[in-house]
Amino acid sequence: MELRETFRAPFLQMAWQRHGRIAELVGRGEAAELRSAASELHCLSGEASMLAYEDVAEAARVAEKAARESDHGRLVGLVADLRVAIQAVENDG
User: Is the pTM value of this prediction over 0.85?
Assistant: First the structure.
Protein backbone atom coordinates (compact mmCIF):
# COMPACT_ATOMS: atom_id res chain seq x y z
CA MET A 1 0.00 0.00 0.00
CA GLU A 2 1.30 3.41 -0.96
CA LEU A 3 2.26 5.63 1.99
CA ARG A 4 -0.16 8.35 0.88
CA GLU A 5 -3.01 5.84 0.92
CA THR A 6 -2.07 4.84 4.48
CA PHE A 7 -2.69 8.41 5.61
CA ARG A 8 -5.78 9.07 3.47
CA ALA A 9 -8.42 8.11 6.07
CA PRO A 10 -6.78 10.04 8.93
CA PHE A 11 -6.29 13.02 6.60
CA LEU A 12 -9.96 12.99 5.62
CA GLN A 13 -11.09 12.79 9.23
CA MET A 14 -8.89 15.75 10.15
CA ALA A 15 -9.83 17.68 7.00
CA TRP A 16 -13.55 17.38 7.71
CA GLN A 17 -13.01 18.45 11.32
CA ARG A 18 -11.01 21.47 10.21
CA HIS A 19 -13.57 22.30 7.52
CA GLY A 20 -16.34 22.25 10.13
CA ARG A 21 -14.41 24.63 12.38
CA ILE A 22 -13.54 26.87 9.44
CA ALA A 23 -17.17 27.03 8.28
CA GLU A 24 -18.31 27.86 11.81
CA LEU A 25 -15.69 30.61 12.20
CA VAL A 26 -16.44 32.10 8.79
CA GLY A 27 -20.15 31.99 9.59
CA ARG A 28 -19.53 34.31 12.53
CA GLY A 29 -17.65 36.66 10.20
CA GLU A 30 -15.86 38.71 12.83
CA ALA A 31 -12.20 39.68 12.51
CA ALA A 32 -10.95 37.42 15.32
CA GLU A 33 -12.83 34.45 13.88
CA LEU A 34 -11.45 35.12 10.40
CA ARG A 35 -7.92 35.12 11.83
CA SER A 36 -8.64 31.78 13.49
CA ALA A 37 -10.08 30.46 10.22
CA ALA A 38 -6.91 31.58 8.42
CA SER A 39 -4.83 29.60 10.90
CA GLU A 40 -6.95 26.48 10.38
CA LEU A 41 -6.71 26.94 6.60
CA HIS A 42 -2.94 27.32 6.81
CA CYS A 43 -2.63 24.03 8.71
CA LEU A 44 -4.97 22.24 6.32
CA SER A 45 -3.02 23.51 3.33
CA GLY A 46 0.23 22.19 4.77
CA GLU A 47 -1.23 18.82 5.66
CA ALA A 48 -2.75 18.44 2.20
CA SER A 49 0.51 19.48 0.55
CA MET A 50 2.49 16.85 2.46
CA LEU A 51 0.20 14.16 1.03
CA ALA A 52 0.08 15.72 -2.46
CA TYR A 53 -3.64 16.50 -2.30
CA GLU A 54 -2.94 19.59 -4.34
CA ASP A 55 -6.54 20.63 -5.02
CA VAL A 56 -7.25 20.72 -1.28
CA ALA A 57 -3.96 22.51 -0.59
CA GLU A 58 -4.64 25.15 -3.23
CA ALA A 59 -8.24 25.70 -2.14
CA ALA A 60 -7.06 26.14 1.45
CA ARG A 61 -4.28 28.55 0.40
CA VAL A 62 -6.66 30.75 -1.58
CA ALA A 63 -9.21 30.73 1.25
CA GLU A 64 -6.49 31.53 3.79
CA LYS A 65 -5.51 34.61 1.75
CA ALA A 66 -9.14 35.77 1.66
CA ALA A 67 -9.47 35.21 5.42
CA ARG A 68 -6.29 37.21 6.11
CA GLU A 69 -7.67 40.00 3.91
CA SER A 70 -11.02 39.85 5.77
CA ASP A 71 -12.77 39.26 2.42
CA HIS A 72 -15.77 37.57 4.02
CA GLY A 73 -17.96 37.55 0.92
CA ARG A 74 -15.33 35.78 -1.16
CA LEU A 75 -14.36 33.49 1.70
CA VAL A 76 -17.84 32.00 1.99
CA GLY A 77 -17.61 30.73 -1.60
CA LEU A 78 -14.04 29.53 -1.11
CA VAL A 79 -15.05 27.44 1.90
CA ALA A 80 -17.64 25.78 -0.35
CA ASP A 81 -14.90 25.15 -2.94
CA LEU A 82 -12.75 23.61 -0.22
CA ARG A 83 -15.60 21.23 0.67
CA VAL A 84 -15.73 20.09 -2.98
CA ALA A 85 -11.96 19.49 -3.01
CA ILE A 86 -12.11 17.40 0.18
CA GLN A 87 -15.06 15.44 -1.22
CA ALA A 88 -13.02 14.69 -4.34
CA VAL A 89 -10.28 13.11 -2.19
CA GLU A 90 -12.95 11.12 -0.35
CA ASN A 91 -14.59 9.93 -3.57
CA ASP A 92 -11.27 9.07 -5.20
CA GLY A 93 -10.79 6.02 -3.03
Answer: yes
Maximum CA pair distance of the chain?
44
Cα separations in angstroms, 6 against 16, 51, 55, 74, 79:
17, 10, 19, 34, 26
List of E strands, 11-65? none
CATH number of the structural domain 8-91: 1.20.120
Q: Each residue of 2-29: pLDDT tens digit?
A: 878 899 999 999 999 999 999 999 999 8
31-45 pLDDT, tens per residue? 999 999 999 999 999
Q: 3 exposed, middle or buried (CB, 10 Å; 0-12, 13-18, 19+)?
A: exposed
Rounded distance, CA 4 to CA 77, Å?
28
